[in-house]
């Protein structure tokens, strides 16, 4: 349930302070790897992506190397990934379009124009690149946490991003990724650890358990 009376820019400060410097769970070594891993990670756990990444990047260490491949060449490396057929096509198409690592865009418009990359993926890639913030990361964890907190009352990622962008100043738009970290570590789908949550004082879900 949305809480209209909460001063959210002030309320999210402890959350951002705790998680703003957290390393992303995808263990990328450079921007090329992060882009590839983000495309692969849709509907697949970060753990699986991290496991397959070493062999994949040993074979295709750069965008230039990937551009020389056909989608079928990737299958033996990414067969554990959900929808690997489509994702291999997207990755090869991206590589053939960009041709080299230095051509990877770091703007929202440039990234979402690439196959297989939507706003969530673009925000994650931009965050890794430390590029100018143009949006808010909204993944499954962010959806759960933002609704439990009461900052939004919708499961629609686009609406969540838009509403949070309106509620928070741009300098706090990393709150989405911070909520994702909170969701992974504390605000789990079942048995959330309220005692360890830096947001329990303003959390609608927690307050409802106290009545």
UniProtKB/TrEMBL annotation:
GO molecular function: 4 iron, 4 sulfur cluster binding; DNA N-glycosylase activity; endonuclease activity; metal ion binding
Biological processes annotated in GO: base-excision repair, AP site formation
Key word Nuclease present: yes
SUPFAM superfamilies per record: DNA-glycosylase
Alphabetical keyword list: 4Fe-4S, DNA damage, DNA repair, Endonuclease, Glycosidase, Hydrolase, Iron, Iron-sulfur, Metal-binding, Nuclease
Gene3D superfamilies registered for this protein in UniProt: Helix-hairpin-Helix base-excision DNA repair enzymes (C-terminal), Hypothetical protein, domain 2
Domain of life: Bacteria
Protein name: Endonuclease III
Organism of this sequence: Panacibacter ginsenosidivorans
Classification lineage: Bacteria, Pseudomonadati, Bacteroidota, Chitinophagia, Chitinophagales
């Amino acid at each position: 349930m949305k809480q209209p009376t909460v001063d959210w820019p002030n309320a999210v400060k402890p959350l951002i302070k705790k998680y703003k410097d957290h390393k992303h769970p995808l263990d990328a070594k450079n921007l090329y790897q992060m882009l590839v891993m983000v495309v692969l990670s849709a509907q697949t756990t970060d753990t699986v992506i991290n496991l397959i990444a070493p062999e994949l990047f040993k074979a295709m260490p750069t965008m230039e190397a990937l551009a020389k491949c056909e989608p079928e060449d990737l299958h033996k490396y990414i067969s554990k990934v959900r929808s690997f057929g489509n994702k291999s096509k997207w990755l090869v198409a991206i590589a053939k379009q960009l041709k080299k690592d230095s051509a990877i865009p770091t703007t929202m418009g440039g990234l979402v124009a690439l196959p297989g990359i939507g706003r969530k993926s673009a925000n994650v890639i931009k965050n890794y690149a430390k590029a100018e913030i143009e949006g808010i990361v909204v993944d499954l964890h962010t959806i759960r946490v933002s609704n439990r907190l009461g900052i939004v009352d919708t499961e629609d990622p686009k609406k969540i991003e838009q509403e949070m962008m309106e509620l928070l100043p741009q300098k706090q738009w990393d709150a989405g990724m911070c909520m994702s970290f909170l969701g992974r570590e504390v605000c789990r789908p079942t048995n959330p650890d309220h005692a360890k949550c830096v947001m329990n004082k303003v959390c609608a879900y927690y307050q409802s358990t106290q009545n």
